[in-house]
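@channel sequence for tomorrow's demo:
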Amino acid sequence: MEQIQFDPAVMEQMPIPLLLASGDIVSASNTAAARMFGSFPDGRSLRSLFPPRQASALLVAAQSGLPSAIRGWEIAGRPYTVQVILMERDARFMLAFYPEPEEDNLFSTRMMGALGRELRPPLTLMMATLGLLSARLPEEDPKAAHYMTSLLQSSFRLLRRAGNFTDLSLYLQGEIVLSLQEADFTEFVCTHLGAARDYIEAKGVSLAFETTEPSLRFAFDADKIERMLLNLLAFALSRAGDGDKITVSVSAAEDAAFLKVRFSGGEIPPEQLRSLFDAYGELRPGDGQGLELELPLARAIATLHGGSIILSSGEGQGASVTVSLPRAKPDANLLRDKGIAYDYAGHFSHVMLEFSDALPAGCPLYQSRKNAAQPSGG
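C-alpha cells (generated this afternoon):
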C-alpha cells in the first residue's frame, strides 16, 4: 500500500490560506495565502507578517506540543481562526487560516442548531415507539413489516439531520471540546469497519482495509473520530454503486497518522471538490440531491484535533478523502472529563443512523426488530 507523506504541493488544493513554517520562518505557502498577504510570504519571518503579540502566540502554540486554535484574529480587515497543526518533531508546523462566519452565516449557524435541538426530542420518542410497534407486528404480514422498515429508516434519516444540524452548529461556533484518550488507532478503525461491513455490502459494495501500521497508538477523541469515520464511509457509500469498492487505509509519518477512504465509481466534478466542504453552501438550494453535511462535519472534527482533510477525484479513478491527525502524546494532552455522556444518535445504532441516507429506501437491515431500538456503539 502507498505510504502517504506530506507534500507542500497539496497545499495548493486547499481553498484556505496555509503557511508551512520552521521555527519563525515561513518555508512554503499556497496561493490563498499569497492573496491574503499580497504576495507569497515564503522566506519571511512570522514576526514580519504579524504583530508581535500574535507572532509570539503562534510560536508558543507551536512549541507546546498541542494542536491549537486561536480565534478572532483580524487580517486584512477580516476575522480568522488560526489553526496550528503540528507536522513533525523538527519544529515544523502548519498555520491554517479559517475565515470566521460572516453575520449572515452566523445567523444560519444558530438557526441550524436551534432547528436540530427542536427536532431531536420528538424524533427519539417517535423512533422508540416505532421500535415497540415493530416488535408487535405479526410475523405473517410482510407488507406491514415493509412499511415499518420504511418508517424506521426514514426516522433514522430525520434524526441524522437533527444531530448534524445541532452538532455542526456547535463545531462552527467553537463550542465543542475534545476528550482525548490514548488508544490503538489501527485497531479502532478495524473494529468500526467490522460493524459497518454488513451495511456496506447490503448495497453491493465491497469493503477492504489496508495498513502499514499493525499498531498505531496515540491520543484522540474516540467518539468524535468514530463519527468522522462513519460519515466518510457514508459519503463514499452514497456515491458507490453495485460492484464498486470502498478501501480504507491507515498509515503514518513520524508525527502524523493518516486515514484514507477511497472508492471506485462516482467521480466528483472539479467544481464540487471545494463546495462539498462548505456547510453553508450545503444549506442553500442545490441540485436536488439533498443536504450533504458529511464532509463539513468530518472537517470540523479533523480540525478540532489539529488535523486536516483533503478530497481528491479524477476521471476513471473514483475519489478519495484523506485525513491527517497529529500523533498526540498522552502526557502532553489536555484530557477533559466527559461529564454527562452525550450520544448524538440518541442511543440508537450509530451505523444505522449514519448509513440511513446512503442505503436504498426500505433496506431490509432496518427491518430487524432487535436493531430498531438498539443502543449505540455498533
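heads up for whoever presents: The two ends are 28 Å apart (CA to CA).
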